[in-house]
Amino acid sequence: MSNLWKRLADVAKATAHEALDRLEDPVMMLNHYIREMEEELDDAQEALLSQRAVERTALLRHQEYLRIAAELETRASEALAAGREAEARAALVESWPSSRRRCNI
Description:
- The chain is an all-alpha fold.
- The chain is 91% helix and 0% strand.
- The protein has one domain.
- α2 (26-81) packs antiparallel against α3.
- It is rod-shaped and about 100 Å long.
């Protein structure tokens, strides 16, 4: 009896597949797939542009951090060379919060 049900199920599946094959136009389906791929490509290009902007912002911040670090080091070195160790230390301590605000940390 189970063999009968299996055969009936196979016939139903084959009939459904045959009906779908007749409805499916290959050119129409290819055009649909191409449209989907173009949408995915547009999304990927937008994501790439966004990522490049993030990268550029990070690079500019990094360069600003390097500039501030060099400036602080120079000021501290000059103060130390002039024998003003406390002033050098104070300048670095006082400048650190303002450099963080300028760079949006």
